[in-house]
Amino acid sequence: MANSITLSRHKKYVPDLVALNSLCERNFMLLERLVDSWEIAGHINQFETSPSFVFQIKVLELSRYTNLLEIRQLSTSLPDFLQPKVQVRVYHDAKMAEVIKSQNISRIQPSYIYPNKQMHQPDEKHQINLFLHDWLVFCKEQGMSLPSQVAGLN
Q1: How far apart are CA 101 and CA 21, in angstroms?
Q2: How far apart are CA 116 and CA 154, in angstroms?
Q3: 61-92: pLDDT as tens digits
Q4: Taking Cα atoms as reference points, which of 62, 11, 37, 51 lies closest to residue 150?
Q5: Are 124 and 115 in contact, with CB atoms under 8 Å apart?
Q6: Could you report the per-residue pLDDT of 27-36, keeping only the tens digit for each?
Q7: Which residues sit opposite 56 in a β-bridge?
């Protein structure tokens, strides 16, 4: 009997579009409660969650049906690379908010072949949007609204 090598084939990850769309809809609803003005480019909403952490939501771009937001954690006690930052495209007509850039990852793919050089997870897009959801829930529950300019953190 000849030795046979059995190669196990991993099933290709298929994104769950219903779950991702639902998550993006929930992110939109949370952002709607946290952002007091979509119509002003450069507008900033900030929330203090502890004496050393501030979360900032900034309107980067405006268009007829969408906005581009930057959401970041600011801290004077941590270096920049340890402070999370995401860019979120808000679709007002569809009532969805989707992460389009996170830290050093731009153009987030719907799925990744694993393993890969960057070590992205197969469901990286879903995980990043889930991170945004958890972040927004945290801001809503723990955050105290601050004036648009916080000394030393901008």
Answers
A1: 17
A2: 36
A3: 999 999 999 999 888 888 887 888 999 999 99
A4: 51
A5: no
A6: 999 999 999 8
A7: 46, 72
Closest CA to 102 of 142, 132, 76: 132
In SS3 terms, 57-120 reads as EEEEEECCCEEEEEEEEECCCCCHHHCCEEEEEEECCCCEEEEEEECCEECCCCCCCCCCCCCC
- Token pair of 153 as six digits: 């953190």
Q: CA nearest 146: which of 87, 69, 74, 41?
A: 74
- The reported pTM is 0.78
Going edge to edge, which strands form the sheet with 105-106?
105-106, 96-102, 85-91, 66-74, 53-62, 44-50, 144-146
Burial category of 1 from C-beta neighbours within 10 Å (exposed 0-12, middle 13-18, buried 19 and up): exposed
